[in-house]
Amino acid sequence: MLTYAVLLLILGIVLAFMEVLLPSGGILAILSTGAIIGAIVMAFGESADTGVVFLAITAVLVPVTIVLGLKVFPRTPVGRRMILKPETETVSERGSAGVSDGDYSKLMGKTGKTVTPLRPSGIAEIEGERYSVVAEGEMIGLGVDIIVVNLEGNSIVVNEQEKT
């Protein structure tokens, strides 16, 4: 009977290791837990001292097996596919996320022309430079004279310039 308890304990530890390595949805963990509990029950059936020894072995081997599995997992083919690689490029190589650090305060009140229709955003040329702008009200067509009326963070808000 002790032989079966030892075999069940080994099976439980192997299943716990496999649970860490293979995505099984917890099935291997349930089988591992069942095998380990069965081994401990059988060991206590043999004698109380044997049961305590099995409990101590389980208390040490299961955490060690899980940590070992987590160390080995990133090196397996499945682990290499599931775990992201560390970042290899620097911030300067990657560039910005499209957020401009430019100071647009000099554009307040300036006039320009739309290069694309503003529905409500688009491109306008102001003082010879192209900027991404947002129309304050309704859509503004292509080639329409505009004036900068507001600056909200990185957004340049424009209106159609009134014709005089």
What does this structure look like?
By secondary structure, the protein is of the alpha+beta class. It has two domains: 81 residues; 56 residues, Beta Barrel (OB fold (Dihydrolipoamide Acetyltransferase, E2P)). The chain contains five helices and five strands; from the N terminus they run αααααβββββ. A five-stranded mixed barrel has the order 1-2-3-5-4. The longest helix has 25 residues. The model has no long low-confidence stretch (mean pLDDT 86).
Which structural class best describes the helix and strand composition? Answer: alpha+beta
Q: Note the main sheet.
A: 5 strands, mixed, barrel
Oligomer: single chain
Ranges with pLDDT <50 over ≥5 residues? none
The overall pLDDT average reads 86
What's the total count of β strands? 5
Beta-strand residue percentage: 15-25%
Spatial order of the strands forming the largest sheet: 1-2-3-5-4
Count of DSSP-assigned helices: 5
- Radius of gyration (CA) equals 34 Å
| Morphology call | rod-shaped
Number of structural units classed as domains:
2
Helix content: 40-55%
Order of helices and strands: HHHHHEEEEE
End-to-end separation in angstroms reads 103 Å
